[in-house]
Write a structure and sequence with these properties.
With 437 residues, the protein is of the alpha+beta class. 67% of the residues lie in helices and 14% in strands. The strands form three sheets. Strands 2-5-7-8 form a four-stranded antiparallel β-sheet, with no helix packed on it.
């Protein structure tokens, strides 16, 4: 194989690798894929998942209160010789006893009854676990809407980029015509400068759009856990795949299952359990116990004997905290105040969600109306530009009129491109406010 053929083969391979690398760096993502990646990789949701794991482990810890408590001990110590002194402290006698002692002990106890305190504490931890999961669901819906906002903003910018590129192309064609007219002495140098200035402004606006695309792309790659060099491409089908919204009454009915509402209700239930647990402090506690003790030397005899003595015991213990009679009522009153606050927060949450759903529903319908109006405006602006361009080419209009028509066309196209995406965002915002995102 000649050197020329080797070089040609190398260039082909390099081109293929470059094409594949460029292909890998781009990723088209649908809305469903966007939500799936958000659930899996968003840093904020990782923290919420950790909270759920902590809360579930709290249930297991609370269940340990139903198990017996077992302790064992091993002691080694030195015993000094005791001194026997007369009651008037006149004489004293030192008694020689074994000096080294050992004690082996084992004790066990188990709670039998405490007015359901252990059971209620387990239920309380279960409620905390449910609250952690509901908090995750509520947080997840908020994060999904936030990431969707980035996604749709990127879609808008890409649409704007296409609109600017198209208008730059038209402006350059228009400038070619102006130069022809200028060379023929039909227009002044002023028209050429205005045409060049318009192209310069359009290119500057295009550069701003491209920079904003890079910023949003970076935010999305972090949120979705993708590689930094991944170029995200929104799925165009997101515009046509939005289902028809339900009635406002349907969404207001679904609000009852909103995670925020469930959090408020379970917070009230949690205070009910706290009240039961606190009331249990005013009742006696019944426990069973057993123990065994092996110790040396035996010091209860005279003289002391360097031998082991083994003793065991078993029985029941009934304890009652008398101070709970005057301390617990104050804690119960505080819990009642906190419960009343939770009830007020539940009512406030319902009212706020009712307002939010109504506002989101109105904005959704407003977005549809705006889209219809802006489509008409874009068609009129296109027709106006076509007429003005024809007039200018026939020297029946001045350049300023043509530039005004071009700017109106650009503005109408940008607004229409954004209005379609606004419908998508308004629909998902309605789902978020009703708790169904």
């Amino acid at each position: 194989m000649t050197l020329k053929k080797l070089l040609l083969l190398f260039l082909c391979i390099a081109a293929t690798v470059d094409i594949n690398a460029q292909y890998v760096s781009q990723k088209k993502i649908s809305v469903q894929e966007l939500f799936d990646l958000t659930r899996q990789n968003h840093p904020n949701l990782m923290v919420s998942k950790a909270d759920i794991a902590i809360a579930k482990q709290g249930i297991e810890v609370a269940k340990d209160a139903m198990l017996p408590n077992i302790t064992t001990g091993l002691q080694g110590y030195y015993i000094g010789d005791p001194l026997i002194i007369d009651k008037d402290f006149s004489n004293s006698t030192k008694v020689d006893i074994p000096h080294f002692g050992n004690t082996f002990s084992a004790d066990a106890s188990e709670l039998i009854w405490k007015a359901g305190s252990v059971r209620n504490n387990i239920r309380s931890q279960s409620l905390r676990s449910e609250l952690a999961e509901l908090s995750y669901q509520n947080n997840e819906q908020g994060i999904k809407l936030l990431v969707l906002g980035y996604y749709l903003d990127l879609y808008k910018l890409l649409n704007q980029k296409g609109v600017y590129q198209q208008n730059i192309k038209l402006a350059e064609q228009r400038l070619d015509n102006i130069n022809k007219f200028y060379n023929q002495g039909m227009v002044t140098r002023n028209d050429v400068i205005r045409g060049q200035l318009q192209i310069s402004n359009l290119k500057l606006a295009l550069q701003v759009v491209e920079n904003n695309c890079q910023i949003l792309n970076k935010q999305l790659t972090v949120s979705l856990g993708l590689q930094e060099d991944t170029e995200i491409l929104p799925d165009p089908s997101v515009i046509s795949s939005i289902p028809q919204a339900l009635s406002m009454d349907d969404y207001k009915t679904e609000v009852q299952q909103h995670p925020a509402v469930q959090i408020a209700k379970k917070s009230v239930d949690l205070y009910d359990l706290s009240e039961k647990i606190t009331r249990a402090d005013m009742l006696p506690t019944l426990s069973a116990f057993a123990g065994n003790r092996l110790a040396r030397p035996i010091t209860s005899t005279s003289p002391a004997v360097d031998m082991f003595t083994n003793s065991w015991s078993a029985g029941f213990s009934l304890n009652f905290n008398l101070d709970a009679l005057y301390k617990t009522p104050k804690r119960l009153k505080q819990i009642q105040f906190e419960k009343n606050k939770a009830l007020a927060q539940e009512n406030e949450t319902m009212q706020n969600l009712d307002v939010s759903v109504s506002s989101a529903y109105i904005k959704y319908n407003e977005a549809i109306t705006q889209n219809t109006t802006l489509k008409t405006n874009m068609e009129l602006a296109d027709e106006n530009y076509r007429i003005m361009n024809s007039k200018y080419n026939n020297q029946l209009a001045i350049l300023l009129d043509l530039i005004d028509a071009s700017n109106a066309k650009l503005d109408a196209e940008l607004q229409f491109a954004n209005s379609e995406i606004n419908i998508v965002y308004s629909y998902y915002k309605l789902l978020r406010e009703s708790g169904n995102l």
